[in-house]
Amino acid sequence: MASGFTMEPAKRLPLTAKCKHYTGRHEVPWDSLKYFAQRYSIFSFYDEGIYLTDDAWFGVTPEPVACEVARCFGATNEKKRTLVDTFAGAGGNTIAFALSERWDRIIAIERDASTLACAQHNAEVYGVDPSLITWVLGDSFEYMDALVHGPERLHPDLRVDVKTSVLFASPPWGGPGYSSDEIFDLTTMQPYNLERLHGAYQTMDHGLFLPRTSDIRQIAQLAPSGRKIFVVQYCMRGASKAMVAYIPAKTSASVDEGSTLFAVETATRTVQRAKLAHGQSKMPRAWAYSTWQTPMPFFFCHCARTRLGRFDLFSKSLRCVGSVDYGLLTTAFKWANRRWEYDLRRLVVGTAAMAREKKKNSESKRAKKAEKAAKQASKGDKKAKTKAARVDGSDAEDVDLDEVLEEYRRQQEQFLKVTETVCPGPPRPRAASTLLAAPHDSNSLLLFGGEYFNGSLAQFYGDLHLYNIARHEWRCVTSPNSPLPRSGHAWTRASNPSHVYLFGGEFSSPKQGTFHHYSDFWRLEPATREWSKIDVKGKDKSPSARSGHRMTYWKHYILLFGGFQDTSNQTKYLADLWIFDTVNYAWHCPTLPQAQLKPDARSSFTLLPCDQGAVLFGGYSRVKATVALKKRGAKAQGQAQKNVLLPKVHDDCFSLRMALPAPDAGPGAPPTVRWERRKKPANAPNPSRAGATMTWHKGRGILFGGVHDVEQSEDGMDSEFFNQLFAWNVERNRFMPLGLRKPRQQRKNAPEQRAGRRGRGQANEEELLRQLAALETGASLDDADGIELENKLEEPQEDEQPAREMPVTMEPPHVRFNAQLAVQDDVLYIYGGTFEKGDREFTFDDLYAIDLSKLDGCKEIFSRAVEDWVESDDEDDEDDDDDDEDEDEDEDEEDEDETEQQHAPSKRKKKDEAGSDTSSGAPLSAAWDEDETETAASSVDDGLPHPRPFESRRDFFVRTSAEWQEVLMTSLRWKGVQPERLAVKEIKAKAFELSEEKWWDSREEIMALEEEQEAAGIQEVVSLAERGDAATAGGARRR
């Protein structure tokens, strides 16, 4: 090279003709079809533009396996901060290492230029920091030779300290022929055998990614004196994919077992224990581990080391997610048995895991076994039903998401036109769906999508339902062109015309092992029920695939913000803003100044429209924090620390200020936007809560439900759920609680006083009739005003159906989170939601209605019992583990080497692996203190007419109509509009809108006054000064 170095960092290489992104099976070579069907397991972001060469399909590591390998590498000594990936390939492992945020530097080496170009491109797709990875185009063996014998030949950016670095190698295996060998001979592996690989890498701690059937005895011979080699089997969907041998460097000093470099077992926690016995001689203990962190079915870990010329096998960990496949575990142990010639006599998993052979003949032992057998018999029916419910879905994870979605498309094409079918009842229960007040009809609600998880399998929905409020009727809409099944999507209506826009969402396999995020954009015409897909071609011309985002509208624009992208390695939260122009059909992603304050990345937040643009409140994300590792027996001083992601519930508030583009900016110019941080809303719900959904209504947000994690432990967290109602006044940035109250006995006002003697006579006649009716019914004269007279002039409509009686309660719906809310005609509708109890998650199947103007009760439109939860194998045996607790304690006392009893399962499983304490140096509290809470001014101080207690919207306008018309005309004149040009009817209509806005803006304050006056016995306030006609009548009689 011109620079004098034999190896330098590679520049950003362009994609070549060998770099391909296949979009359909018809484009894929026949020998790669098998791998193309698994593309979402290989790269979950495949649809975002992943490129591979034809040869790379055979060597890329599946993403779940790569992420688990990265996590195991993360358990290395904290002093190791540099990682060298000698066979980068298309970037699968390199990207997983980078996203783990464990390494300060990563050097990725690949000898093929096209493959390296794919890896660089794929890392950009996953959003990897380009400064973290140094790409090298060259041979890894030449690199290692230069690093050890002549570092000066390397570019300074490629020189590393072997003592503070680790190496990962995923060499080619010479084709799929290894799979037919029961035990694969690593000395015959092509093009690089085990001896050459280890000879080149032995100066560094390294991990070798090898075929799953590799001969462990050959690997064990590489162990340095007094050191261990960890061999880990990584499996997906019940089948082993590969193994990794974690080999210490030969130059490393001897260390004790507790500080082994690759402490793979530290990433797991014990929940079950199993023991292997063999005749007179016993194997070291085998342990069963469980986790809910990643979609890895399990991995089988062996620890082998040399000792006196023979090999001992230590079965250290067996890891599973969800249910344990006992047959597969037996197969795994038999696999070890074939290699180490152990006669595996018995494997007891689950409730009999701690049975001990040496006490099986004791009378007390037999008594305990008999008692336990009786308990098991009583539970037999329940387990049989549970297993039967899982039979149909036992292999449901082995599905190709592309084929499943294609099948949905074929089913849609069978519909020739848009049809509506009256449903016999409400739709199936579902969570993460979307509910919207129909913009074209004030008597309808729209419901789309969602998912339902019964504890075993997940089912996604792509149907559109319409609920007719007056007829209490559900209709299902089928269409030849509609969005595929999904959940976690977002939609919003447009300001004008009344269209509905939908974006994104997610879909998964039945066992949720593989996820797919959507990036499609749809428009719904509610009147005709027709869907139209909006395609915007070009990279970075539209939002990326996501879930958990929010959408709203401003003028002729659709706003989209935030969300998350779930990969097998981590959940990436987004903070990008996108604006869709409904006139020019184009997306805009405004570039904001770096110094401008803007919301952090988040999902599940509130995004409401306002006159100036939009307002954002709350949300959920996971943020990086430093935690101190818990080590048994370790001293308090000098504890190791690591970075983890901890959940955070946001309680901040932002305003998005928007302005239309200048007239000379061109037809496709985007609007100007600016984020402004607001102070904390006054009287915000306390404690802060996640999953509290909010919907827009008359310039305010209506919030319901939520969950707050009140205690976090090593095994999980207890959670507090809510069913409170709040109204958030957007303009004044203030929350007010909305409490239900019993309907107030309305005193019927006398008919409007009519001018003249005839009107007064008719009013007196009606009052006399009411008093006579009260005497006939035995009621007091004070209740005469509550008696309604028959109006013979009003004939009932022939097609009018009698209203269905619905139960009404003074309590809001059951506590829950992530309920779907919509407001139609001043009535709040609450649909579904989720509730957790223990390890179970329940999806509500109900719909409630609350009149926001009266708050006179919660009306139950329908409520069906929650469907049965299909327990996992671990849950089936939870009681069995409790039955064995006493027995386990006795056995633990006999064996000093026995580890501690497992903790009882918490009420809520952790979704973040944080079995450690948060350090004081990483506070997660919000940046704004309580004293910065915005003080809201009373709506009485704005100089506008103010409603009175017990005054309806119409009465308020009748009393203040002249004032509101004057306010309107003054406002029009300030805008340069002459009100004299408007019709009187138009002026009154606009004035009524202003008065209605004021009435809702003051609603919470007025309700508080009404409650105070009702407590004092006052139910109506009348101003005699404003009842001039009544005063005139009285004066005439006195004269």
TrEMBL record:
Q: Which GO terms describe its biological process?
A: 7-methylguanosine cap hypermethylation
For bias type Basic and acidic residues, the affected ranges are: 360-391, 943-954
Region (Disordered): which ranges? 355-391, 664-693, 739-765, 866-954
InterPro entries in the record: DUF4110, Kelch-typ_b-propeller, Kelch_domain_protein, RNA_cap_Gua-N2-MeTrfase, SAM-dependent_MTases_sf
Catalysed reaction per UniProt?
a 5'-end (N(7)-methyl 5'-triphosphoguanosine)-ribonucleoside in snRNA + S-adenosyl-L-methionine = a 5'-end (N(2),N(7)-dimethyl 5'-triphosphoguanosine)-ribonucleoside in snRNA + S-adenosyl-L-homocysteine + H(+); a 5'-end (N(2),N(7)-dimethyl 5'-triphosphoguanosine)-ribonucleoside in snRNA + S-adenosyl-L-methionine = a 5'-end (N(2),N(2),N(7)-trimethyl 5'-triphosphoguanosine)-ribonucleoside in snRNA + S-adenosyl-L-homocysteine + H(+); a 5'-end (N(7)-methyl 5'-triphosphoguanosine)-ribonucleoside in snoRNA + S-adenosyl-L-methionine = a 5'-end (N(2),N(7)-dimethyl 5'-triphosphoguanosine)-ribonucleoside in snoRNA + S-adenosyl-L-homocysteine + H(+); a 5'-end (N(2),N(7)-dimethyl 5'-triphosphoguanosine)-ribonucleoside in snoRNA + S-adenosyl-L-methionine = a 5'-end (N(2),N(2),N(7)-trimethyl 5'-triphosphoguanosine)-ribonucleoside in snoRNA + S-adenosyl-L-homocysteine + H(+)
Q: Where is the DUF4110 domain?
A: 939-1029
Q: Report the leader peptide range.
A: none
> Molecular function terms in GO for this entry?
methyltransferase activity
- Specify the pathway: tRNA modification; wybutosine-tRNA(Phe) biosynthesis
Q: Where is the composition biased (Acidic residues)?
A: 868-899
The family this protein is said to belong to: Belongs to the methyltransferase superfamily. Trimethylguanosine synthase family.
Protein name per UniProt:
Trimethylguanosine synthase
Lineage, broadest ranks? Eukaryota, Fungi, Dikarya, Ascomycota, Pezizomycotina
